[in-house]
Design brief:
The chain is of the alpha/beta class. It has 2 domains: 6-73 and 234-254, NAD(P)-binding Rossmann-like Domain (Rossmann fold, 3-Layer(aba) Sandwich), CATH 3.40.50; 74-230 and 263-280, Dihydrodipicolinate Reductase, domain 2. 31% of the residues lie in helices and 24% in strands. The protein has helices at 6-10, 27-36, 51-64, 78-88, 108-112, 135-145, 238-248, 256-275, and strands at 17-20, 40-44, 68-71, 95-103, 148-156, 167-174, 179-185, 193-200, 203-208, 211-217, 279-280. The strands form 2 sheets. An 8-stranded mixed beta sheet has the order 10-9-8-4-7-6-5-11. Helix 4 runs parallel beside helix 6. The radius of gyration is 19 Å and the shape is globular.
Amino acid sequence: EWTTRYDKMLEREDIDVIGVFTPSGTHCDFAIKAIQAGKHVFVTKPMDLSVEKCDVAIEEARNAGVILAVDFQLRYNETNQKIKRALDNERLGRLILGDLRMKWYRSQEYYEGGYPHGWRKRRETEGGSAANQGVHFIDLLQWFMGPVKTVYGRSGTFAHDIETEDLSMALVTFENGAWGSIVTTTTSYPRLGSSIEIMGDNGSIVWRDGNIVLYERKDNSEPSLDEFQLDPGKPRNIIEDMVSAVKRGSHVMVDGVEGRKTVAIINAIYESSKTGKIVELD
């Protein structure tokens, strides 16, 4: 069953949860309408392109007593959850540096396509390589390393006829004192993939395209992430997560407050690129 009448759909009493999969700059617009209709809601990444709209959605959900979630699918991955457990348990010691490299390729035809036509190349609906493609890995980086404190960024358009950026770079500092760097681009031909490298004073972890390619520690010659046992009953995706949250009252993997963090980081990259100044996050 399908419909083009969103407001009419929200009136249905047999719908408990709304999923929003529209162009990035409209996510919170649709989410807020669903929340005001008394529905639980999740949005695909990013939560939105506007921090202000994220704040409105979070407040509306809080007042309505409904669930607001963001689908960051990589957080459900078992390997990534074990990395998070290892870092939280200080297996790498004091964190020093976290580097993110996402070097992907997107053709001009990719930006011209989509529905509505061309939404991926417009600033108000897509954002750029950081906001659309890199957001998955920016979320992982800040989840692994902790909250970001400052951002100094550069963004530009090098290989496409688009309003948005196809290359962004940033130097970041984390609240725990660690430093980091971010590179996202859709100009890399061939696609060179994605990697996150995390270094602490006791060792390092290198994640590349979903796999651990290095895990070494000073205090253990044969470390293994398998020391961390995960709950087999935990949700494996956003659908299972929302069902569990609605039926059993469990907390979703990424709520609105958590999902807002990547939007703030990406906005800081773009703002810093415009002003040439370091941006401090709230």
